Amino acid sequence: QAAVETAIKHRKQLSTSLSLIQTTRAELLELRTSVQTLVSSLPATARPLLTRQVNSLCDHFKAETAALTVAYRKEQLARKQLFNQIQELKGNIRVYCRVRPLSNREQDSQLNAISFPDSNQLSIVNNEKKTSHQFEFEHVFQTASTQQEVFAEVSDLVSHTCQA
Prior knowledge:
Layout: H1 2-41, H2 47-90, E1 96-98, H3 104-109, E2 112-118, E3 121-126, E4 131-136, E5 139-141, H4 147-163
Parallel strand pairs: 1-5
Antiparallel strand pairs: 2-3, 3-4
Helix pairs in contact: 1-2
């Protein structure tokens, strides 16, 4: 649980850092355009001084952007490590079950009955053979489950698999 909270905190910090980097870059471009406009309207004697000051500011912004980029990458790495820990705690092998809707024939025959005792259990009763089987999965998606629900449940696992 603490790892999940830390991962969420790191994700927010990454988002904030990325926004700050984007804002800084946009400000730098605006500043550069403004300075170029000002420099072209100044007398020739003031241009060298202003050019030095602008270059100094540009160097400062470049250094700040580089520092933010480094911090962003560190946060990204920390988030990935925490995410890997969460995945290991959950286990590396997961089995999900998605039950399709019964066909009209299956509904009419009533030979097999499917029930969902819990969000991770599936029970099948064969009335003809008078047998019952109960199965347990990481998660069971019932007949009315949507693609969005399935994706929400497995998206972290898929993301982790693609990064590995």
